[in-house]
Amino acid sequence: KEGLTELIMEENQKRQNKHYIAAFILAAAGILLDQWSKYLAVTYLKDKNPIDLIPGIFQLTYLENRGAAFGILQGKQWFFYISTFLVMGAVIWIYMKIPASKKFLPLRICAILIVSGAIGNLIDRIRLQYVIDFFYFKLIDFPVFNVADIFVTVSTILLLVLVLFYYKEEDFEQILYSGRDKRDPDR
Q1: Is the CB of residue 114 less than 8 Å from the CB of residue 48?
Q2: What is the predicted pLDDT for the residue at 187?
Q3: Which of 20, 122, 153 is nearest to 161 (CA)?
Q4: Which of 11, 33, 47, 151 could bridge across to 113 with cysteines, CB 3.0–4.6 Å?
Q5: How far is CA 113 from CA 29, 74, 145, 148, in A?
């Protein structure tokens, strides 16, 4: 029986390691997509007139954002560095506790997208002291944003929907107590 338990634990660890590798690859792909899109924005939009994709509604325009969403906290780079590392640390810590099963795949994807977006914008902040934004919904005068912002916003909304409507209390207990027997809190 003990040998079987060890074999099961070993198989679970292999599956978990595959999830970590896949997460790393997906996060890297997201970061590369974000950075490539910003490179294109600099190349084709900087110091040029905006490009109307849907006239009067949606355009591509170049903006150097030295603040957060909606232009708040302009020039407060240290705040962004610290908050980004705290959020990434929390998301990675939670990610490592999420069971490697199909049921929790949406939660894992949300975590990967949040980290990808955070790192994408952090690279800009460290390298340039500002974030490159270029998508603009002119019709509603929505703040200009980028691919990393899309990753963070969409995954945060999806995360809220999952927490409120999909996952149950016992699912969260499974995450919180992963690796421990709930009947024996000292384990």
Answers
A1: no
A2: 37
A3: 153
A4: 151
A5: 10, 25, 16, 8
